[in-house]
Design goal:
The protein is α/β, with parallel strands linked by helices. It is built from ten helices and ten strands. Helix 1 (about 10-20) crosses helix 8.
Length: about 260
């Protein structure tokens, strides 16, 4: 089966067009935790630069890493001058330069679990901050959610990515906070939510779904079928819940 983590390049332009960006409140949340805006940051899995432009636009010197060449080309056309780009998967990054902030925007779950936190810690200056944030983009209306789920059911049981460490959805602390607490390399682990509500046209919402890996893995004819069925049950405009779950942690000066 194709690697879902490398499925996005074929829809890089759609990803840029249809994926929501990030609100200013997210940067403020990270900066408040860090005690002020970080001067330098490394981004893991930058995609088309949705989060890159938020942080770089606030004066942070961002090094954006991304393994997919098509995504990186799209990113280059949208981020401020001065953003440094590196085509590399997280596992290919070598310790050397360190940063005040290392962050991942809806990308950390694509990294390999082996030595994940040792690698992150090695990229952070002592006392530096790690941030991971993201969340599902979902219909606000429960009846519409159920109608879309029913339309999708013959093709996909779920379009979500399960918790990488198996943490149940109802637990107070979600992944990656659970792993950060266990890692020994980080302290002051916090989880919070930035509430975000949007309105999308039916076409834009289906465009967003066309960039979700679960649908990208479907054969093209089945993908067209499921989107056709969804289009029949959706109104012209839909309310969207796009709450962002934020995990923050600080590298220990001396990892245990």
């Amino acid at each position: 089966m194709p690697d879902r983590s490398l499925s996005f390049g074929v829809v890089a332009q759609a990803y840029e067009r249809f994926r929501p960006g990030y609100p200013p409140e997210l940067f403020d949340r990270v900066a408040a935790y860090a005690g002020g805006p970080p001067r330098t940051a490394l981004e893991i899995g930058a995609g088309t630069g949705k989060a890159t432009r938020l942080f770089a636009g606030r004066g942070v010197a961002v090094t954006a890493t991304e393994p997919d060449a098509a995504m990186l080309r799209e990113l280059a056309g949208h981020v401020p001058a001065g953003v440094r780009t590196v085509r590399a998967a997280f596992e290919e990054l070598r310790p050397g330069e360190t940063y005040e902030l290392v962050y991942a925007a809806a990308a950390l779950h694509w990294t390999k679990p082996e030595n994940r936190w040792e690698r992150v810690a090695a990229l952070l200056a002592p006392g530096g901050v790690f941030a991971s944030f993201g969340g599902p983009v979902d219909l606000a209306d429960p009846a519409l959610r159920e109608a879309v789920r029913a339309a999708r059911a013959p093709f996909l049981v779920s379009d979500e990515i399960p918790s990488p460490d198996g943490t149940p959805a109802g637990e107070a602390m979600q992944w990656p906070g659970t792993e950060l607490l266990r890692s020994g390399a980080f302290t002051d682990v916090r989880q919070s939510v930035v509430e975000w509500r949007l309105t999308m046209s039916r076409g834009d919402y289906l465009g967003y779904l066309s960039t979700v890996s679960a649908y990208l893995m479907l054969p093209a004819p089945r993908r067209e079928q499921v989107f056709g069925l969804m289009a029949r049950v959706l109104p012209e405009t839909v309310g969207i819940v796009a709450d962002i779950t934020v995990h923050l942690a600080r590298r220990r000066a001396e990892p245990r």
